[in-house]
């Protein structure tokens, strides 16, 4: 009955990545967006290491890095002086192939994703809006209003709402969007700038209750500024310009703004929807959760939603797993979204709070604590893992089981630099990893048929990454460990898959 497996409403990064992963796995996709094209300007700037790892599975990472600008370090300024420099490379060199923050404006990002999707045979349908839908049990009837003004109804197997904070899909499911809005007005501006902080790195400055964040976006002093509007100007957002922003922190960095190429203001929200799934309808990205820009987590989290859902839809569509597998999408991603909103809320509140005590904490306490933490290798790595999203895990979730070494079911598969054990993940398939010979010959036997088996030599690299010798790690298509079995037992693998109804073609 359904013409397409999945209808995706919204062609931002989340929707485009969902379409790419589904198409790569053989599903039929239709993606629509009510806009005329990619917005010429954007707020999302940062692509983190975990997203680049997922892009590597699509053979996208190298092109994204080439088009973007790796920022190798973060500089923390307070009261006109640089207090701390945090090198991402020294913190993440043993953790990921991508130990940096990539600055890549969302408009350019979307164009690349859309072009790659079109090369795979799927074109974004612009000026086409989802105006309503009905979940009829065995399919979703979606009403679409096209550029010609004609409304049509199409049957699809599943509907994915990637249509932003004002999501039509979310409203249609009737689920809530609990949270609130921060009182201050923020701005984002693309500028041509000079000064001591224009060093090709990320710079954040605190001066009193004001702050500014500067990303290097290109050569010759091109940058992106994020900061706050002066409180006395915040009531007339539609008429605000760059002269209305607070220049206190900008001045403390010694920045000289030669030209403002683009400027926009916005308010920041923190909300999470009550459900990520209703029957055959799913919510992803800003349609499911919005939060402060602290740490540049928003777009990366939406992309994580897309990858988590895509392989599960593909497994159910191919008959390799029951519908119950789709329930794990909400269980895994909602838990992460709630934790993220709470964490970024605390960080954002600290960054924007007013008063003498808050100013003291920002300008005196935070730099000292950050500098101390960065000098200690375990804390330095933890800071990088947290910001880069390589720390994201699904421990305790319905698909996670076992422990071997320091790795638990639900963890992202640790990267081992010496042998690049992430290279086999490009297959986007279930697979078994063994480090040392162990009982490797039998570890690939699945519930029905065989799983790809990758055996790596044991050595200091796997040990440093927390892996256990001769253990078996059952790895999901999204590169998270499903089962970590210290005994390397084929029976444990078969038991895990059988209990969840997961099978593979022989």
UniProtKB/TrEMBL annotation:
An annotated Gene Ontology molecular function: oxidoreductase activity, acting on paired donors, with incorporation or reduction of molecular oxygen, NAD(P)H as one donor, and incorporation of one atom of oxygen
Keywords: FAD, Flavoprotein, Monooxygenase, Oxidoreductase
Gene3D superfamilies cross-referenced by the UniProt entry: 3.30.70.2450, FAD/NAD(P)-binding domain (3.50.50.60)
Cofactor entry: FAD
Positions of the FAD-binding domain: 4-342
UniProt-listed Pfam families: FAD_binding_3
Origin superkingdom: Bacteria
Protein name listed in UniProt: Monooxygenase, FAD-binding protein
Organism: Rubellimicrobium mesophilum DSM 19309
Taxonomic lineage of the native organism: Bacteria, Pseudomonadati, Pseudomonadota, Alphaproteobacteria, Rhodobacterales
